[in-house]
Specification:
Keywords: FAD, Flavoprotein, Oxidoreductase
Number of helices: 10
Order of helices and strands: HHHHHEEEEEEEEHHHHH
Shape: globular
CATH superfamily of the largest domain: Butyryl-CoA Dehydrogenase, subunit A, domain 3
Domain Acyl-CoA dehydrogenase/oxidase N-terminal: 12-98
Number of strands: 8
Strand content: 5-15%
Domain Acyl-CoA dehydrogenase/oxidase C-terminal: 244-361
CATH class of the largest domain: Mainly Alpha
Domain Acyl-CoA oxidase/dehydrogenase middle: 130-219
Strand order of the largest sheet: 1-4-5-8
Protein name: Acyl-CoA dehydrogenase
Length: 386
């Protein structure tokens, strides 16, 4: 019987992509424990991703990329997370944002073209650093304390960004900054230089290897052309499904570990493995309900986003619901897996305790649960608003 994770492969192209992702994930799984213990950034994993051509998969074909769909991105990110959640979440920000820029064309085309060429030719990556200690998550609408001041030929940017995932490896990134002269907020593409420094603050319970340190900008110069005006179409934020895909991959790994354990572990008080126990079978059945519901929700919404191009802004509530369902179900799956395995699941010699820590990080990735619930309520109420 095929693995459950393979049920959402639709054609030979996707089968080949999945096989490549599985090979990468297997390598990452061997290194995950070390990077987790050390809190070190997995440069070796990203070298493998670059060599495999993974980093260019969402780049437009016109610029040398593969232009994969959101559905395909979700499928691949789930598989990378099966091997290492930190690597999947980190690379997902790059992969997702390239997809977002491809569909919205919100950047000036010459700037986007230059980025794509760097991704394809040099393995460059991108992320946006928006979070700050004082303003909290940018999804909450706080005004950044980072400032941009106009000077001849460009801007000088100063401030400190937190949760800067991929910061150890990026040679360019986007920052949000407040522009006092305009009393507005803008996005700027910053190239790393002497005015940019990294402060290694990332020491967390889970997702320890994402390199989400603080980045400090001290009068960093940005050319006029690198101000990103934010124009373009509204895609509903579908690219952010890379987040729940990551946590579903972790949950799938936990489920597989627990099922294999149940099929093989036989205490000396039993004649058969513990999989024969009705209580264990019940827990496995509960995991399947959570897992299959999450998969159905995630992949159906991703497919709708791909197909309903004109309707993408209207899918925002469902995209948020997919993140809510998948993340909370993933947490429940890992919890059930640990209950099946028992006290051994707490051992740092096994991956389950890392899955348990990593999967909880999903609660703090956007959109937050209360935002999803509020958006769904607002949409329901609007049906009856005169």
């Amino acid at each position: 019987m095929a693995r459950w994770i393979d049920h959402y492969i639709r054609n030979e192209k996707e089968r080949a992509l999945a096989a490549q992702a599985d090979q990468l994930a297997a390598r990452f799984a061997e290194r995950a424990s070390r990077h987790d213990r050390e809190g070190s950034f997995p440069f070796d994993n990203f070298a493998d991703l670059k060599e495999a051509g993974y980093l260019k998969l969402t780049v437009p074909r016109a610029y040398g990329g593969d232009e994969i769909s959101l559905y395909e991105l979700v499928m691949l990110q789930e598989r990378i997370a099966y091997g290492d959640g930190s690597t999947a979440l980190a690379v997902g920000w790059h992969m997702g944002q390239i997809l977002h820029l491809r569909t919205t064309r919100k950047w000036p085309e010459p700037v986007f073209a230059h980025l794509c060429e760097a991704v394809v030719n040099d393995g460059a990556m991108i992320n946006t650093f928006a979070s700050e200690a004082a303003s909290g998550s940018p999804s909450r609408g706080g005004k950044p304390e980072t400032t941009a001041t106009a000077v001849d030929g460009g801007w000088l940017i100063s401030g400190r960004k937190t949760f800067s995932t991929l910061s150890p490896i990026l040679d360019r990134f986007v920052v949000t900054a407040y522009i006092p002269d305009e009393e507005s907020t803008g996005d700027f593409l910053v190239e790393r230089g002497e005015q940019v420094s990294l402060i290694e603050t990332w020491d967390t319970l889970g997702m320890r290897a994402t390199g989400s340190h603080d980045v400090v900008l001290d009068q960093a110069f940005v050319p006029t052309a690198n101000r990103l005006h934010g124009k373009g179409s509204d895609d509903g934020g579908g690219w952010m499904l890379h987040i729940p895909a990551c946590y579903l991959g972790i949950a799938q790994a936990a489920r597989d570990f627990a099922v294999n354990f149940a099929n093989s572990y036989k205490p000396n008080t039993m004649e058969k493995p513990i999989a024969a126990l009705p209580s264990v079978q019940h827990s496995i059945g509960e995991m399947e309900i959570e897992l299959r519901t999450a998969h159905t929700m995630l992949y159906s919404v991703a497919d709708r986003w791909d197909q309903e191009t004109a309707n993408r802004p209207a899918l925002k509530a469902d995209l948020g619901l997919a993140k809510y369902i998948v993340t909370n179900h993933a947490i429940r799956i890992v919890d059930l897996a640990m209950r099946i395995v028992g006290g051994t699941s707490l051992s740092r010699q096994l991956p389950l305790e890392r899955y348990y820590r990593d999967v909880r990080a999903g609660l703090h990735n956007p959109p937050m649960d209360n935002v999803v619930i509020s958006n769904l309520a607002a949409e329901a109420l609007s049906e009856f608003t005169q």
